[in-house]
Write a structure and sequence with these properties.
homodimer, alpha/beta, 7-stranded mixed sheet, 5-stranded mixed sheet, 14% strand, globular
Chain lengths: 676, 676
């Protein structure tokens, strides 16, 4: 059957380029698939809300599938609208009307091939939310049936339940139900297909220790003995998620002895990057087909004959399928996925927003360096401008490292000293501070509850540091103003954002933040990986990787050298393990105190030291909540994040006592009932 | 019965100040309530996540209620945890464990008075989300029963469904079910009380044209003939919401002939301001008690004897109860509510974050003026610093208006010219632009797809404007860095944010944005209202209100005077009606084109002019989505908003076609099926 896949690859290439597929290719494919049972999987990258664009893309694959005579062609969840569309459908119902019109247009072009297309449906019942997350079965010029999503996720980046009504029935409803009246006495299958939408297949009570919902739509479908289970998905990539998804789909298909065909969206919507990697399991739970990750692809499979091609996962991921969910500094198996997740995130954000170019400050440090590499790879080196903006604290090494990096990458580069801006700003600010000091004390004295100008050594002034960071941002936003289709890049990393170690209107400001969900220890591994795996090897100067991270904004009075970040914070290895344990294991302060950290295995630290670092962590995290709330869009990479589309915590909850108290304390605090 | 309310007011005052209530007061109240049927309503302002603080507050009212011998004391939804706690409970389950420990502590101090206290409960079943939004019935030193919220809102600012499990049963479950096993064969009432949580009472199919959920918990409770319906709420204020709430609760109590007692949270959590205004309706649907709005208050009522006191709504709101939901420039009836909503929002954000002071730029324009008044009223004039930062474009009038305003308000004031910063920055940027121009064209030529340096008159450069706005923000953030417990204020208003008419890292940057949900036409009315209704009359110079808004960042080449915002945008009256219609009526482009605007009633405009403004609106709104995503916390005021906690639209959805297309266009675009 090699022929089939070679022919499909050739056709896919033409389809992607919107070129005509050669007649010989078509007739070759026609001959192969004429024996029946062949299904097209259209792993597409729609743009949320751009219905015309999405419809034309869908039409292309429907027409091609018709031409070669496939049984069916399957598209991802909400393919016509693009996922996620969020609250837009509530405020602007016109776009839902439009997607219905285009859906009917798509139905018009169908013939003998069944097209399975995700769209937003109005719920015309007087009860429930206004919309359904639906899939339409199109054939012979008409809508043949509707499948409505039953299980609506509302966690992490998912918000389906906000304006969508969960369907009380599983499987196919008659076409005349468009608008939402459910029939309960009809077959749940269409032509033997048991069709479900994304989350509907994520609730198997035997597979999951804990299920989120009370029904299992797959079980409902299976009762009618489908020949094939089909799931239309929009499932984002996350660390360790491939492992879970593979095991679950394998489990379901082998449990029911029914082949399972899963079509996932690819592309990114703001912060969320979808990995595609559509796949088919046979009725024994064996993987028989798998599409590429982070790319549009059209595949043909025959689930009954076990015909399919397995494209590799991103490198290293196969290995990690057996890894335990434990904290480790061995990031290797996740780095290609990390790279492709971010590259797709950048590329789609720029393309879908109509942006073409990026400018970023190059400090010679790790964060801006990795950002520069990613931007160059995502947008093309000619579309990236790196600006070195040295201050009086910037070392000559940092300046030359930045320039060397730019040369290695082939991006545009210039140097723009910020000395005169710092001097002018400092002078202006000092004048201003003098006037403010006449009315206001600088420091808060908690013992008197008053403000005083008596110097206070507890809180050093960050003003000089911030002037530097903000002057740089002023330069970058200036370029963005003056040069069309260009935005500045925010270079903050996850570890430092957790600690609020980023300047408002400074380095954390930008139009996009590529590495905001990558912890620092992973960034080091990532830099080495980039040096080894990019076409141009070792673009990142070794000196940048070896250097201890530090913002070069202030001098450490103890050493006379620029302050190192780990001095201000704590060792990154330790910090990143706290973050990982909180996000992945939901550990508390006291649990963290008891756990032996990887860092502790090779560094003896006292309990006092550990307590100090943990206290600092919680204190800094609590006051970083505001900064998280104003972060520019970024790409979610890890299993959990602080991205505001993924995690929401009230800013005013900064007084949470993460350590907890004991019962004695509670009883003493509340006193007793004077009547009792 | 006047005695009762006078005594309660005196006691309430002491309780608010955490002072001992006089024995004579207690014995007076004891005598009155000894006849039975008296219930305490504790309208408190908890802090999300600060469980110890909340528990102590709750304990205070429980003890007092016990002392005077009330039948029961009722607290708002999630009183112990604070609402909304959002995703925090998922990432940090420790705080849920803590709230259970404190709940048991509260149970310990109860005697004969039933305390009804909202808290977060673990769901220990293997199915469903991890938590319940619950209320505990505490009495005689123990938890007597649990009520779990059934209807979990997931729209606008509500996200209950993210990590909470909807309860499948209504009413009281036995105490031994703590953790979540539901009994179905027990009484739903506790001591004759039918208790529900917030949204549970918002789904009456006879009252609402459309109900969001399939069950009505109130109807379930009513089946068991409760003597009193009790609802524990955390319901935020919104324009026109009081009208809806009043009509609905009146409808329910008269429909079932059962009195209804409703206790609402007050205070603010980040962007969301809760109005309190707890109330009781008798069994005929008559309002018999209503607490103050936007204040903590302890009330005593007797729903059976129709004993209660009705405190006034915010001024004007009674009038608006009969108003239709139509767009109007008559804002009068909503201005006191607007004022109190924002003042509470500012005050609680500052207090709960441990902030005390604010600094803002005073331009002599309307936005910064209204912000200054609000900040002075919320924080005290001594805690506000106004800085006039004139540039070469700033008129003398603007400077003197700003100073006059500051004097009238009694806030601190200074002038800090930004000329030297602008000059230095401009010089530095021009140098930099020269270097960038060597590699990059400034303008995008869509015909060639290339960038060119051939001047392009379509897009004027905003660089000089933005340098001014950003220099000012640099000054304000500098003060925030240097002076403890102080943040800068972002002065953007709703109309201008809709149009993206705000500078990133400039006027839209700050620690808090007081008027981000107030449209410009309302701000004019608000300014006049402030002048009339504040203790110090006419603090806002008339010249500021009469002036046409404009950022004074650029000169209009046609007039030689500073550019006026309405020239760059469109008349504010017209703009604000578009916004209102989109948010409140979900009207589409074509519907807006057909509607006769209030503006059109007294200004003749051509269809071309209207089309031009509508086109500009949708174009600017589409590219403002990024700015909405990085806005600082603000206060939601209107019925709908663009606050990111309330409305989410993907930034990459900027290509939405809001006009729609016709079927002919669709058929031509998709072509026909070549096989058909």
């Amino acid at each position: 059957m090699n022929d089939l896949f070679e022919l499909v690859e050739l056709a896919d290439k033409k389809l992607l380029e919107n070129e005509k597929v050669d007649a010989s290719l078509i007739s070759g494919l026609k001959t192969i698939v004429s024996s029946g049972g062949y299904i097209g999987m259209a792993q597409i990258n729609p743009t949320a809300g751009n219905i015309e664009y999405n419809a034309k893309k869908i039409a292309k694959y429907i027409k091609f599938s018709e031409q070669i005579g496939l049984d069916a062609v399957v598209f991802p969840e909400l393919a016509l609208m693009g996922y996620p569309i969020e609250d837009t459908i509530d405020r602007h119902p016109i776009i839902v009307e439009e997607n219905i019109k285009w859906l009917k247009g798509l139905a018009d072009i169908t013939g003998n091939t069944t097209a399975i297309v995700g769209f937003v449906e109005f719920n015309k019942n007087s009860k429930g939310k206004k919309y359904y997350n639906s899939v339409a079965v199109l054939k012979n010029g008409a809508i043949q049936g509707i499948i409505r999503k039953s299980l609506l996720p509302a966690y992490s980046e998912f918000n389906d339940y906000r304006y969508m009504e969960p369907s009380s029935v599983s499987g196919v409803q008659p076409a005349e139900t468009l608008g939402g009246i459910n029939f309960t006495d009809c077959s749940k299958l269409y032509d033997g297909y048991g069709i479900s939408v994304c989350e509907d297949c994520w609730n198997d009570g035997q597979f999951f220790q804990r299920t989120l919902y009370n029904t299992n739509p797959i079980e409902e479908l299976v009762k009618e003995k489908p020949k094939l289970l089909i799931n239309c998905s929009a499932s984002p990539t996350r660390a360790k998620k491939e492992q879970l998804k593979h095991n679950m789909l394998k489990f379901i298909s082998s449990k029911y002895k029914i082949p399972f065909l899963y079509v996932n969206q690819t592309g990114a919507t703001d912060n969320v990057s979808f990995d595609g990697t559509s796949r088919v399991y046979d009725s024994d739970g064996n993987l028989i087909a798998r599409a590429k990750s982070f790319e549009e692809q059209f595949m043909i499979v025959n689930p009954y004959k076990k015909t399919g091609k397995i494209y590799p996962l991103t490198k290293g991921l196969e290995k990690s399928l057996t890894e335990q969910k434990v904290f480790t500094l061995e990031y290797e198996s996740d780095l290609e996925r990390t790279y492709k997740t971010i590259i797709q995130g950048i590329r789609d954000y720029f393309a879908k927003c109509g942006l073409k170019r990026a400018v970023l400050g190059l400090s010679g440090g790790l964060d801006s360096t990795v950002c520069a590499v990613l931007m160059a790879d995502a947008l093309g080196c000619e579309n990236v401008f790196g600006v070195s903006m040295p201050s009086h604290i910037t070392s000559n090494e940092s300046r030359s490292d930045a320039e060397e990096l730019a040369n290695n990458l082939g991006i545009n580069f210039t140097e723009a000293p910020i000395r005169s801006m710092i001097d002018t700003t400092t002078e202006c600010l000092n004048n201003l501070f003098g006037k403010v000091e006449e009315k206001w004390g600088k420091y808060y004295d908690s013992s008197t509850g008053a403000f005083t100008n008596k110097p206070n050594n507890i809180y050093p002034s960050f003003t000089p540091d911030n002037i530097q960071a903000r002057s740089r941002a002023m330069f970058l936003w200036g370029i963005s103003n003056e040069f069309a289709s260009c935005i500045p890049i925010a270079t903050s990393d996850k570890s430092e954002l957790y600690m609020g170690y980023a300047t408002i209107n400074g380095d954390m400001s930008g139009g996009f933040a590529p590495i905001a969900d990558v912890p620092k220890t992973k960034l080091f591994a990532f830099a080495r990986w980039l040096n080894k795996n990019r076409e141009v090897k070792n673009a990142i100067p070794e000196a940048i990787i070896l250097k201890k991270p530090g913002a070069e904004l202030a001098i450490n009075p103890k050493t006379g050298k620029p302050l190192i970040a780990e001095d201000a914070l704590m060792p990154y290895e330790f910090l990143d393990e706290i973050i990982w344990r909180i996000e992945n294991k939901n550990e508390s302060y006291n649990e963290l105190l008891k756990t032996e950290f990887v860092y502790e295995k090779h560094n003896k630290i006292s309990r006092e030291q550990k307590t100090e670092w943990l206290d600092k962590f919680y204190r800094r995290m609590s006051t970083a909540l505001y900064k998280w709330s104003i972060m520019p869009p970024s790409v979610i990479v890890e299993a959990r994040s602080i991205n505001k589309c993924d995690y929401r915590q009230p800013i005013i909850s900064s007084k949470i006592n993460y350590k907890g108290v004991n019962e004695k304390y509670i009883n003493e605090s509340l006193g007793s009932n004077s009547n009792a």
